[in-house]
């Protein structure tokens, strides 16, 4: 065992440890770069989602306004239908009265 060189053995262990440390440092640097890119992508996604949220809220407000307008239009149409019905009833009553008056006049003329 006298041939065993402790300095060479320690040097190899130090070199191996240094290589492991360098690989670990490179891996950490890659992981850090990936984390930065992921964070950047996350910010972009959040910004895009915020824009889409605002767009959806505007669309929802427009739909609510349209729904309110449709409700008002429906009420106006119902009122118009009611008025048309009343006008038809009044017109029928006028025609019936004219027929009765005409029949009365004809009856008076022949009597």
UniProtKB/TrEMBL annotation:
Where exactly are the transmembrane stretches of this chain?
89-108
Domain of life the protein comes from: Eukaryota
Membrane topology classification = Single-pass type IV membrane protein
- Biological processes per GO annotation: Golgi to vacuole transport; intra-Golgi vesicle-mediated transport; macroautophagy; protein transport; regulation of protein localization to plasma membrane; retrograde transport, endosome to Golgi; vesicle fusion with Golgi apparatus
GO CC annotations on file? cytosol; endoplasmic reticulum membrane; ER to Golgi transport vesicle membrane; Golgi apparatus; late endosome membrane; SNARE complex
Keywords, ordered alphabetically:
Coiled coil, Membrane, Protein transport, Transmembrane, Transmembrane helix, Transport
Gene3D superfamilies found in the cross-reference section: 1.20.5.110
Q: Report the subcellular localization.
A: Membrane
For whether the record's keyword set contains Coiled coil, the answer is yes
Instruction: Give GO MF terms, alphabetically.
Output: SNAP receptor activity; SNARE binding
Query: Protein transport among the record's keywords?
Result: yes
The record's section on Pfam families has: V-SNARE_C (PF12352)
* Similarity field: Belongs to the VTI1 family.
* Name of this protein: t-SNARE coiled-coil homology domain-containing protein
Q: What is the lineage of its organism?
A: Eukaryota, Metazoa, Ecdysozoa, Arthropoda, Hexapoda
């Amino acid at each position: 065992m006298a041939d065993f060189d402790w300095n060479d053995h320690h040097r190899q262990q130090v070199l191996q440890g240094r290589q492991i440390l360098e690989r670990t440092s490179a891996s950490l640097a890659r992981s850090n770069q990936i984390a930065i890119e992921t964070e950047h992508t996350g910010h972009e996604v959040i910004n895009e989602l915020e824009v889409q949220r605002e767009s959806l809220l505007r669309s929802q407000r427009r739909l609510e306004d349209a729904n309110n307008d449709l409700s008002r239009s429906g009420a106006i149409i119902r009122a118009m239908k009611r008025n048309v019905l009343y006008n038809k009833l009044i017109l029928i009553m006028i025609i019936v009265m004219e027929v009765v008056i005409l029949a009365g006049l004809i009856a008076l003329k022949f009597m």
